[in-house]
Amino acid sequence: MLEDFEIVQVLGLTSFGALYLAVHAVDETTIALKEYLPAAITTRSTEGCIGLSDPSHEEAFQRGLQSFVGEALALSQFDHPNLLHVSCVWEANGTAYRAMPYLAGSSLLAKRSSTKEPASQAQLQALLDGLLSALETLNAAGLGHGQIEPVNIVMRDGDQPVLMDFDAVRHAVQSDLRRPHVDAYADPAQAQKILSADLHALAAVLHFAISGRWSPADASQPVRHQPLADVLTRLKDSASALGYTPEFLSAIDTALAFAPTDRPRSVAEFRALFEPKPPAKPPRQPKVKRVVAERPPNEYPLNSSESVLALLANFDRKKSTADDVEPFESPPVPTLTEEAEPTLPPMRASLFDAMDAGDALPQHGVSYGRTAYKPMPPMQGGRFRRRALLVAGVATLLLVGVGAVGWQLLG
Q: Is the pTM of this model over 0.90?
């Protein structure tokens, strides 16, 4: 028994801790308990207490214990579906413990190693979104993770990843004893360095989900990852049905650049690599300026009234020649060497100038002179004819009346 928890089973052992399956004695809920246990410098007594294998390891043990408690307190402030949550932490038996929800599932390392089929792009996108969201939450709190590896990512039902605990304890225990230990989360420069390493490790996890080959990170010897185009050549039998797009694979290769200066340095930059790019706009064609031939200026401009008079003056011309002008344009004035047409007098530059000079304007050939009024002559014999017609009509009526009366009397 540890406090109110009954240890049921040992789930796993690491270099710096032990993980147990436990049940709460009151509400019988199942949880996971982690114990701070640096195996290289500690021993366990028969009473269950933790002691040092050598007194010289006291400082390293205490640094690790402080980092274990601080990491638990940091994880207790987050309630993110893709990030491990710590419900409580306490010290007992010469060490420290923390309680966490029990996550049923297997690690990404075990899941990928158990199958030859690579993850599809939809699965990779779900993995990327979950881990990036967890890193973004840590980054907003000024924290990094430091241990993004396939073995430290639990895949729950529905392919939802959960990022497990940090790597602060290992750094604290293995730090150089000749130098004073500085907590990485208290140093902004160290925190930025951890964040950059986290992003590179996340890209390496995506590469592992496709290739199935994992190379642990080593600061002294950086790893050159095989381009995913070469990996897909090796997986040509199944890669065609996985739905990979060239942009998605290129983003992973960019995040795994060998030179640290070529890698994304923030979560926003990393996310931007995987966002769909807008379609490129076609190059803008230069506008071709239309060259319009300039119309020669009219040497003798006319207003509207002058144009109408010029049109009437040229209306009755019989023969069309090359010297004819278009309507509404002033014909050129004949020079002394040219002979004016006999049917038309030469026109001046302006018809109003001709009127001012007293010259007669050209007129149409038809003359419209005044005609004298002549009354209609009277009709001959008109009165006698009207009287004869009247007498004939009256006689006809009398004959018709007498005949009708006689028909009635004799009949």
A: no
CB burial string 148-164: b at 16+ within 10 A, e below: bbbebbbbeeebebbbb
- Chain Cα centroid distance, residue 82: 28
pLDDT, tens only, 254-287: 999 888 888 888 888 888 888 877 666 777 777 6
Mean pLDDT of 130-146: 88
Residue 349 in tokens? 């530059």
Q: CATH code at 272? A: 1.10.510.10
Q: Dig out the tokens for 372 from the structure.
A: 């004298």
The Cα 15–Cα 9 span in angstroms is 18
pLDDT reading at 179 higher than 70: no
What is the total count of domains within the chain?
A: 2
The parent domain of residue 163 ranges over 104-277
**pLDDT digit string, tens, across residues 211-241:** 888 877 655 566 788 888 888 877 765 555 5
Nearest alpha carbon to residue 81 among 134, 123, 36, 30: 134
Rounded to an integer, what distance in angstroms lies between the CA atom of residue 357 and that of residue 363? 17
Both 149 and 36 in a single domain? no
Residue 258 has what pLDDT?
85
CB-based contacts of 205, cutoff 8 Å, min separation 6:
108, 127, 131, 148, 149, 150, 153
| Same domain flag for 127 and 258 | yes
b/e per residue 338-357 (b: at least 16 CB within 10 A): eeeeeeeeebbeebeebeee
* 380 within some domain: no
Order of strands across the sheet that contains 5-13:
5-13, 17-24, 30-36, 95-101, 88-92
Query: How many other CB atoms are there within 10 angstroms of residue 251's CB atom?
Result: 22
Q: What digits encode the pLDDT tens for the residues 149-171?
A: 999 999 987 678 999 988 778 77
Sorted by sequence, the CB contacts under 8 Å of residue 342 that are 6+ apart come out as: none
Q: At 51, which helix (H) or strand (E)?
A: strand 50-52
Q: Could you tell me how far CA 227 lies from the centroid of its own chain?
A: 28
Q: In the structure, what pLDDT confidence band is assigned to residue 180 with cuts at 50, 70 and 90?
A: very low
In whole angstroms, what is the distance from residue 55 CA to residue 37 CA?
16
Q: Rounded distance, CA 228 to CA 206, Å?
A: 11
β-bridge partners, 13: 18
The type of residue at 378 is: P
Q: Is residue 139 part of a domain?
A: yes
